[in-house]
Design goal:
- The chain is an alpha+beta fold.
- Helices cover 28% and strands 25% of the residues.
- An eight-stranded mixed sheet has the order 1-2-6-3-7-19-8-18, sandwiched between helices. The chain has a five-stranded antiparallel sheet with strand order 13-15-9-17-16. Strands 4-5-20 form a three-stranded antiparallel sheet.
- A hairpin with a 2-residue loop joins strand 1 and strand 2.
- The longest helix has 17 residues.
- The radius of gyration is 23 Å and the shape is globular.
């Protein structure tokens, strides 16, 4: 409740980061470091292995769901699906409960009570996860102090209902640009309509069949979709440019370079902040492309010894086997550092970012029991 009651929409994490830092500094078994609004605490007991527990402090914008409240059993505000899955339990209502202050609370509790863990532990509480990748606090620490993130295995507390979601899809966003010649719409033959040319882009998107790819025993569904379209400068002007914004979610059998080759051709020089260049092959061959964002995928990492132990604990407590993480998460950042990572957190991932974001109390207890037994 303290975490959720502290407003921390992206760009406003400082107050919460300050509170987390103060809390962690109370415990003599922890070394505490900070960069910006990312706070890191770790044990240094000389154990043979080190596990990283990481969670972001920021939330998406509030939608009439702040400040938070505990809802007692039977409260009409509790969602029917949450009540059915967690009968007789209190429910925390409010922004950030699911994504992901519930998991942050468990990590902070573990940091306080695990004074003699079986392995060394690094706790990471970072800022700016919900916005563009260039602001991500975890990414900034990885660039400035990679040794702070040394470890053998990592858990990201993204909501999974206390199950394991392995790896993650990669993602890239780009504009497919068509060009024309402006003219008065009364004399359209004097121009060349860029919006009409975008019809071919949409046709290619409609014809594309996204793959389902098995990686280390888990199935990842890809996706290729237009998410925005813009063009034109006036209601009586033939448009000279049109942009179709496309999001490609690719499975962890591909690197960013391989994903780009499928979209634009292997020898297309497209890169972030590189302006427009023409696709030489792939789905969008012949069209101009401008890259807007890209983040790598991550393999499941379930062959690691620590991961195998965690899989066993989760199976015993929940009966659930690992599944693929279909969205992008910061497990990819750890994978790039050579640290295998999985997603495991409290709360239903389908309720993340919703106006009626709700977290059942039992999920907090279950997550704490699983991780406490595994690490203790």
């Amino acid at each position: 409740m303290q975490l959720c009651a502290c407003y921390s929409v992206s760009d406003s994490e400082k107050e919460l980061a300050d509170a987390v830092e103060r809390f962690l500094k109370r415990f003599g078994h922890l070394e505490v470091m900070r960069q910006g609004d990312t706070v890191i605490a770790r044990t240094n007991m000389g154990r043979a292995t080190r596990v990283i527990l990481a969670g972001h402090l920021d939330t998406v914008p509030v939608i009439d769901n702040f400040p938070p409240a505990w809802l007692e059993p039977g409260n009409a505000t509790i969602r029917e699906d949450v009540a059915a899955a967690h009968p007789g339990e209190r429910v925390l209502w409010g922004r950030g409960g699911v994504d992901m202050k519930g998991s942050d609370a468990v990590f902070l509790w573990l940091a306080a009570v695990l004074t003699q863990p079986a392995c060394d532990i690094t706790y990471v509480f970072y800022d700016h996860e919900e916005v563009s990748a260039d602001k991500n606090g975890l990414g900034k620490v990885a660039a400035a102090h990679p040794q702070w993130l040394d470890g053998d295995f990592a858990v990201i507390g993204e909501p999974t209902g206390c199950g394991i979601e392995g790896g993650c899809n990669g993602t890239m966003r780009f504009d497919v640009v068509t060009h024309g010649v402006a003219a008065h719409s009364a004399r359209a033959w004097m121009g060349d309509n860029a919006i009409h040319k975008a019809g071919e882009v949409l046709d290619r998107l409609n014809a594309y069949e996204p793959a389902t790819v098995e990686v280390d025993g888990l199935e990842y569904r890809e996706g290729l979709n237009a998410t925005l379209i813009s063009g034109g400068k006036g209601t009586n002007v033939i448009p000279d440019e049109c942009r179709v914004h496309v999001n490609y979610r690719f499975a962890p059998d591909k690197s960013i370079a391989q994903a780009k080759a499928l979209m634009f051709g292997a020898d297309c020089p497209v890169k972030l902040d590189g302006g427009e260049c023409q696709a030489t092959g792939g789905v969008f061959e012949g069209f101009d492309i401008e890259m807007k964002d890209e983040s790598p995928s991550a393999r499941p990492g379930l062959t690691d010894l620590q991961a195998s132990k965690l899989v066993r604990f989760v199976k015993e407590r929940t009966g659930r086997d690992p599944v693929a993480k279909l969205g992008w998460t910061d497990v990819a950042r750890f994978s790039a550092l050579g640290v295998p990572a999985v997603n495991l957190g409290a709360g239903d991932p389908l309720l993340a970012h919703k106006a009626d974001e709700q977290l059942a109390e039992g999920d907090l207890v279950l997550m704490a029991q699983i991780l406490g037994d595994w690490l203790g």
